[in-house]
Design a protein that fits this description.
- The protein is of the alpha/beta class.
- It has 13 helices and 21 strands.
- It has helices at about 20-35, 50-55, 65-70, 85-100, 190-200, 230-235, 240-255, 270-285, 290-295, 310-315, 410-430, 440-455, 490-500, and strands spanning about 15-20, 40-45, 105-110, 110-120, 125-130, 135-140, 145, 165-170, 185-190, 210, 220, 305-310, 320-325, 330, 335-340, 345, 350, 365, 395-400, 435-440, 505-510.
- The strands form 6 sheets. Strands 3-2-1-7-19 form a 5-stranded parallel β-sheet, with helices on one face. It has a 5-stranded parallel β-sheet with strand order 8-17-9-10-13, with helices on one face.
- The radius of gyration is 24 Å and the shape is globular.
- This is FAD/NAD(P)-binding domain-containing protein.
- Keywords: FAD, Flavoprotein, Oxidoreductase.
- It comes from Linnemannia gamsii.
Amino acid sequence: MGFTKTFSDGSTPEIAIIGGGLSGICAAIQLQRMLQLTTYKIFEAESDLGGTWLLNSYPGCACDNLSHLYSLSFAPNYNWSRKYAPRAEILDYLQSTARAYNIYGKVQFSTKIKRMRWKDDRKKWSLEWSNLMTGEEGVYEADVVVHGTGLFNIPQIPQEFEGFRGEMWHSARWRHDVDLTNKRVGIVGVNASAIQIIPEVADSKVKVLHVYGRNPGYVTPQFDDSYSNTWKFLFRKIPLFYTIYTTLWYYTLDSTFLVYFSFAWYSAVHRAIIYLTAWWQRYRQIPDPVLRAKLRPTRVLGSKRTVLSNNFYSALTQEHVEYHREAIVKVSGNRITTADDETRELDVLILATGFAIQKNFPPGYWIGRGGVDVTETWMPVARTYFGTCTPRAPNFFMTWGPMSGSFHQSVTSVVEAQVMFMIKTLSTMMENDYTSMEITEKATYNFASLAQRRSALSATVQPHPPAPILPQKKRPQPTKSGVGISFWFGTLAEFRFRLSNYSPQLFNSTPHEDV
């Protein structure tokens, strides 16, 4: 498919990219590759590119998806050291890829976007920004906005822990200046991050490690291994070999979405394999039947993400490690009391308590067409078109937006599909000299209908229960603060196929002369 690369007068749109992680880097590179467009600026709140992989520097941090599937398709990395690459290697890949495409010169670092407002009269976005280092503030006007901050960038700090008087931090903001040697350490949570952290902390000469986890999940082995020089040579020198290798793994892992179906005959095999594998992992690594019983999941398989680890269970069997399944009922000073009325003193408390997804779009942050707060139209559940566009927000694109995440696969293919959808839309905009393109209510309604039918088959627990599909002409009314976020329930191959069916009829467009 050929793309139109300029408006009829030879100009190109001014584009603001918010976020300099995987999504922002992908969007910037594709704008250059596919449209030869360089009139964009990236706003990044941190001091460097890398997003999640820059912020998350906790011990044991690594990719829990296959490294080669995490690579961008147009910038493959043939030199991954392992099947599941460590954090430093992924960060280096993202930053070196950005340097290879000269992205750094387009970034305004340490800059946070405070507010975005669509100017109806000018058909442009006004972005209010603030420099987090100098305090300088300003306004940037853009024709198009690409929101690529991701979902997992704002730590969730439960209010009950705010009064803890020892050293405390969230796993995504690791304190490397605190030595854990001979300290009494507590870790709250047994999610994907915690499962990587716990073995490392247990082996770091702490005096005692208390692990608090009310809802342990299903843990299966991580069949990790290093790539020899022979493998790297084959990847680099034989493109067909690399393509076959990554394609086979992609579709093999994509089939595992069946694990997240509620009980059905077509998901029985996958669910049985994962259930038995998780059971055997627990039985083999935990000889103590009492501890093994504490770690037995009570939720239905597929209601939470299945995680991979070879050493999580064995770390919990060490003499100086204690696992507590009872709920935390009180935090006072440096003491933690659980529901069994046991109180323990801690020197350090580490929170692996997830992320505040709703805070990515706080009230007043995103003002769309007609002065409407866009997130209010998302109550009680977000309305998007494949997590990429939403009504009342012309010329606005998201990567990894609501209803586009995945439990079972790398998010990279989602991001690439969404960025390509944006590229096609921008090409249409320039070809027809449109000043704005806004996804239609009908398109989002049809996608919401599809998403709800699919989610009804899912065993996953959504952060907010699905809302009834509303008539197209009615706007959802605010029910409470926060944004209903859900995931795409299906294979990523299907997601990419459906999103690739681009049509200008999906949008309401404004010709230049109407401005």
